[in-house]
Design goal:
CATH topology of the largest domain in chain A: Rossmann fold
Oligomer: homodimer
Strand order of the largest sheet of chain A: 5-2-1-6-7-11-10
Shape of chain A: globular
Largest sheet of chain A: 7 strands, mixed
Number of domains of chain A: 2
CATH class of the largest domain in chain A: Alpha Beta
CATH superfamily of the largest domain in chain A: Class I glutamine amidotransferase (GATase) domain
Number of helices of chain A: 7
CATH architecture of the largest domain in chain A: 3-Layer(aba) Sandwich
Structural class of chain A: alpha/beta
Largest interface: A-B, 63 and 63 residues
Number of strands of chain A: 11
């Protein structure tokens, strides 16, 4: 029997819940896999509105995994200079088969120096910030560069994870998983991207973020 | 100031994580709202692959809320005859402004007798089971009937929640939230529905479910 596929998902305070769970719902279907929720301390971590997910593993207890997942969220800025987090990211990436980020999780890859010669993406409103670490940022939903996959904001983790699932298993299996989760998206509005949303809505979020960053 | 909007999300063992979190990511953006994760006991609940979300409230401590959310998952069958769950659903529904289900969560509404004269939907592979409680089941992504909204499988909760958000707040606000979560879906495959997936993939899941149900 093949070895178990170990998947490590980073948690931190004020993570974005859907960054974690969209991808989780897909990757948890990898046969003979085990998912570890990893953080500095084994405890419950809260997103910004109070949902609590338990980290079952610490950095010390999980120094390596096959797939490393870095989600984003408003709390990301508070850990970009945390040497324990950055050292863990560097260490697990050195041994991973795949290292992936969702949304602003790409900033962690950047802060760890892993995006220097890489093509990458992130949440549309984090691109300026990511540019300090990465000179080739695209508008793609997700970008594969070697063993690093970065994805756009929040919900993009679902699309990226289905693609990654097809690489780790096979395309037919990924299609079955998509059918099982009835992922046949029908958003009620067409405002999911700055390409399609009215400029005033884009500006509203940009300004909000400036306010958040200033506090 | 207007009263806080109370949102109660039911948890149970073997819930589907994305049923909960897709919708949560959207509804948690309702201004002046608070989300309660409710179950029989205040403890962590595991989905089928080990993700643990903490239920912060018990049925006794939360007998009423403005929006009631019933997610689905493989664990739903084990609680359809649980009188404490069913009585809580009946009680909170009697006072709610909105009662919504994601995926097989509709079966709980059915078991509570709330879908008798209702048009509803559920996960495509749960429709036969739902038919024992509901005579008008549709293929829609989500269905609004009075104050009850039911949605299709797993990921459909995101679409439904954005629509509900537009009703509870306003359409512009819901559009901003969609942009913030970059919900511009680009699934890598076109197999998210039995309408579009090859028949052999549909049969594969149907047979799998029969196997699950038999064990």
């Amino acid at each position: 029997m093949e070895d178990e596929t170990k998947i490590a998902i980073l948690l931190f305070d004020n993570f974005t819940a859907l960054d974690v769970v969209g991808l989780y719902e897909v990757l948890s279907k990898i046969p003979n896999s085990r998912i570890y929720f990893v953080s500095e301390t084994v405890r419950a971590y809260k997103d910004s509105k109070g949902l609590q997910i338990i980290a079952d593993s610490s950095f010390d207890s999980l120094p390596a995994a096959d797939i490393i997942v870095l989600p984003g969220g408003f709390g990301i800025d508070a850990i970009l200079n945390n040497s324990r987090v950055i050292n863990w990211v560097k260490g697990v990436h050195a041994q991973s088969k795949w290292t992936v980020s969702v949304c602003s999780g790409a900033l962690l890859l950047g802060a760890a120096g892993l995006l220097k010669d890489c093509t990458a993406t992130t949440h549309w409103n984090r691109k300026e910030q990511l540019a300090q670490y990465c000179s080739n940022i695209t508008d793609d939903r997700y970008v594969v560069d070697g063993k690093i996959i970065t994805s756009a904001g929040v919900s993009a983790g679902i699309d990226m994870a289905l693609y990654l699932l097809s690489l780790v298993t096979n395309e037919t299996y990924a299609k079955v998983v998509q059918l099982g989760m009835e992922y046949d998206p029908q958003p009620p509005f067409n405002t999911g991207s700055p390409r399609t949303a009215p400029k005033e809505l884009v500006d509203l979020i940009k300004n909000q973020r400036k306010i958040n960053a200033a506090t």
